[in-house]
Amino acid sequence: MGKAKASEVHETNIKGLSFEQALAELEQIVTRLERGDVDLEESITIYERGEALKEHCNALLRQAEAKVEKLTLGADGQPTGTEPLEVEG
Predict the structure, then answer these.
(1) 68 burial level (CB within 10 Å; 0-12, 13-18, 19+)
(2) Do residues 54 and 26 lie in contact, with contact meaning Cβ atoms separated by under 8 Å?
(3) Which of 11, 43, 46, 58 is the most buried (most CB within 10 A)?
(4) Which has more pLDDT, 4 or 30?
(5) Residues in contact with 87: Cβ distance below 8 Å, sequence separation at least 6, in sequence order
(6) What is the pLDDT of residues 30-74, one digit of tens each?
(7) Phi, psi at residue 82, to the nearest 5°?
């Protein structure tokens, strides 16, 4: 990842990334920041991109949770339909 201006951070298409792609990039950013091998300006830029990636991952997880349904069973144990899965949180 080369040096980028802060304005370029949000121009790069994060919304087109899959959850796995965004998470992998986020992990790379965390590793680079933990190693401390980037200058201050680049650290700020990649931190901002990391925040955007985190928000994208969270949005994708919320979408997945909304699609998850639980199977409802009748008294005889046979499936009768589905209903939204209530997720604690």
Answers:
(1) exposed
(2) yes
(3) 46
(4) 30
(5) 65, 68
(6) 999 999 989 999 999 999 999 999 999 999 998 887 777 676 777
(7) -130, 160
- Residue 65 corresponds to which amino acid? E
Contact present, 57 and 15 (Cβ < 8 Å)? no
Cα–chain center distance at 27: 11
Left if phi > 0, otherwise alpha if psi is -120 to 50, otherwise beta: which for 24? alpha
Q: What is the DSSP string of the chain?
A: -----HHHHHHS--TTS-HHHHHHHHHHHHHHHHHT-S-HHHHHHHHHHHHHHHHHHHHHHHHHHHH-EEEEE-TTS-EEEEEEPPPP-
* Domain ranges, ordered by start, for the chain: 6-84
Structure tokens at 75: 């008294």
The helix-helix angle for 40-67 and 19-35 (nearest 10°) equals 150
